[in-house]
């Protein structure tokens, strides 16, 4: 996925006639964070996962991007998606930079309690690099409003009440009405215009 993203980035950079040096500067992420997540499962066995948050660019504003839970998540995967978030927010002209992340776990094989523990441990280890003015995680593959609520709750333990730390929260936790349908609605609008 990283190679594919770089391929399309270079196609656009060719059109803009960007120098190799400028391409390297633009392509390189601002920060890559990898955290070691060890939690006990329901059988008191230690489980080990890796969490990633790649913060690509913040020149247009706080970074934002999804947090996915999937066994294939790795640093390259997160880096590719983070760069795509940078381009996506710039193309639609919203004042955000791009970030993306995830945990290499398989939620279908985990209890809700285990997912909660892994999520909270991830927040504990990344709390200094996320936040309403730094980097705002959002739901992605295998994450949802409940997971975003756990993130908000855990982050708020350290920083005080912080509903703006994530998007995609439940309405009862100051989430946005229509958030679940937003992506599908956007696809529908684009299809109708073309």
Could you please describe the fold and organization of this structure?
By secondary structure, the protein is an alpha/beta fold. 44% of the residues lie in helices and 21% in strands. It contains six helices and five strands; from the N terminus they run ααβββαβαβαα. The chain has helices spanning 2-16, 20-27, 75-91, 112-126, 145-159, 179-193; strands spanning 31-40, 46-57, 63-69, 97-103, 135-139. A five-stranded mixed beta sheet has the order 1-2-4-3-5. Strand 1 and strand 2 form a beta hairpin. Helix 4 (112-126) crosses helix 5 (145-159). The chain is globular. The mean pLDDT is 91.
Q: What does this entry show, briefly?
A:
This protein has 194 residues and is of the alpha/beta class. The chain has helices at 2-16, 20-27, 75-91, 112-126, 145-159, 179-193, and strands at residues 31-40, 46-57, 63-69, 97-103, 135-139.
Number of helices: 6
What's the pLDDT, averaged over the residues? 91
Tell the overall outline: globular
Largest sheet strand order? 1-2-4-3-5
Q: Report, as a whole number of angstroms, the end-to-end distance.
A: 27 Å
Can you give keywords for this protein?
6 helices; five-stranded mixed β-sheet; alpha/beta; 194 residues; single chain; 5 strands
SSE blueprint:
Elements: H1 2-16, H2 20-27, E1 31-40, E2 46-57, E3 63-69, H3 75-91, E4 97-103, H4 112-126, E5 135-139, H5 145-159, H6 179-193
Parallel strand pairs: 3-4, 3-5
Antiparallel strand pairs: 1-2, 2-4
Helix pairs in contact: 1-3, 4-5
